[in-house]
């Protein structure tokens, strides 16, 4: 019989097997309401949710376990990417922000790290996340020319 403990343990095993550090704790059931991701299984639905100060801040549910696993790890890997980026930023404080300078967009480092982690689990998951990250990196740019170079595993600007 499927229950949240079995699902939780399976997710933790995937993370351990692929050396995915779980900086953002995942709770089995409702957590402390501090924004942490929580998992639940109810009436045949896999549920990922978060509460912040008593209000639900995120809710996702599906009956597809593969889809659920992707969503969980996409969140974990993105969170880990931003943790990594913050550590790197301390060494590069002097970079000023410019919407049209990819190297000044701190999200570049975070998204690259997230994609590296997703790729450890599944190249399909990495490929699935790439368009969303490209969209976000291009959002404020005048020329929408950022793409993910699969050979270098980095975001680049077309023509550079």
Automatic annotation (TrEMBL):
Superkingdom assignment: Bacteria
Entry-linked InterPro entries: Imm63
Domain Immunity protein, chain residue ranges per copy: 44-134
Protein name: Immunity protein 63
């Amino acid at each position: 019989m499927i229950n949240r403990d079995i699902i939780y343990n399976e997710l933790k095993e995937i993370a351990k097997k692929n050396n995915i550090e779980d900086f953002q704790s995942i709770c089995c059931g409702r957590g402390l309401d501090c924004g942490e991701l929580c998992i639940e299984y109810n009436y045949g639905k896999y549920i990922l949710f978060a509460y912040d100060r008593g209000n639900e801040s995120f809710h996702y549910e599906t009956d597809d376990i593969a889809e659920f696993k992707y969503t969980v790890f996409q969140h974990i890997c993105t969170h880990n990417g931003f943790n990594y980026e913050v550590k790197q930023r301390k060494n590069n404080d002097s970079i000023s922000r410019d919407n049209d300078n990819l190297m000044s967009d701190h999200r570049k480092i975070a998204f690259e790290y997230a994609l590296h982690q997703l790729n450890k689990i599944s190249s399909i998951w990495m490929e699935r996340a790439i368009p969303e990250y490209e969209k976000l990196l291009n959002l404020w740019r005048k020329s929408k020319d950022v793409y993910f170079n699969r050979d270098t595993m980095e975001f680049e600007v077309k023509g550079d």
